[in-house]
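Interim report, section 4.2 (structural modelling).
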Amino acid sequence: MRIALLGGTGDIGEGLALRWAYHTNHDVILGSRDPEKARAKADEYETELSSRGRDVKVNGFTNEMAADRARIVVLAVPPYHVADTVESVEDSLSEGDVLVTPAAGVKRDDDGFHYHPPSAGSVTKLVADAAPDGVPVVGAFHNLAAGRLADLDAELGIDTLVVADDDDAKDTVVHLAEGIDGLRALDAGGIANAAEVESVTPLLINVARHNEKMHDLGVQFR
Amino acid sequence: MRIALLGGTGDIGEGLALRWAYHTNHDVILGSRDPEKARAKADEYETELSSRGRDVKVNGFTNEMAADRARIVVLAVPPYHVADTVESVEDSLSEGDVLVTPAAGVKRDDDGFHYHPPSAGSVTKLVADAAPDGVPVVGAFHNLAAGRLADLDAELGIDTLVVADDDDAKDTVVHLAEGIDGLRALDAGGIANAAEVESVTPLLINVARHNEKMHDLGVQFR
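Predicted structure of the assembly:
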């Protein structure tokens, strides 16, 4: 399957791109507002993968061109850019495509990190509201530490929670997630349940800050 | 240390009472609005513990009397009763006591379970606002499945997150939590971070509902 990572030059985009290119045979392409940046990052990822004996092609494009070429479109952009990004690629999405959103609204204050959802109730709902008709939205990959994901030597052994209102789209993303070694995908229900999933992101940061030797945390349900 | 479980006849109270009485030498006492009920449950717990070779005394009292006798007072009551319960035992608390709150505000609708905090922002903050001066409040034990806790054959292997603004009180509760086999206590910061901790409770229910063979879930940070 071809997966476009919009904002694929950022940290969570890098982690997902490397993991999918390393552990699966999916065709990974990067999107960025700046296609030169996307191509430069794609070269970097190819070099990293090649150094591990994995000679695969990673291509870089504008977000629009990347979205146009892929069936799975991951919005690996900061939460305040997701709505703009969906709008910018709207004409590049067609029925059968799936939009995936890993962003969580997080606000920092003096006490710690807090969940700060958009007025839609969650970032996933915001994306669902902005998505064109016929293009289902799946929330997933929220609670993964980008640095740990991008370090292909790091073992995962963690879960990702998947929310969607479209069961086929959800199944597709569960399958994509489980292609990554050490990542288990769990169904957390519909998009109405996304806020509780996204809230885990600031929690992971708070726990890492307050406990020695814990960093780049993930979570496992057991 | 003597630990009073107010609402100790309910499910989370039962789980904590049995685990502390089974795994530690802390003196566990139960409180209830109805002292007869507390005594009857205390007898039940003694029988269960005795059947496992653990002959310990568990006493039952009114909430007021239980709070008066213990240094650690756990509010094992539903979230909509915590403020009333604190008020009812206010005169029984003295400086040096620690109030512990495991409740999370959870609301169910057609889509699933959702975090529904009181206007204070979290149940932990609500308790902190209601607590008498000089009695620190610690949020802990939110994300434990009561049935799994009460089943002494069930292995835990999970974490509990602890929030408090008073470091000594927090350390005391971390120590109490880690006395339970298979339970690891992690510091999640101050009470301002309680909402993200309490939000995990509805999430665990949603994940259990949507994944086969998952029930009585807990969480491990890794």
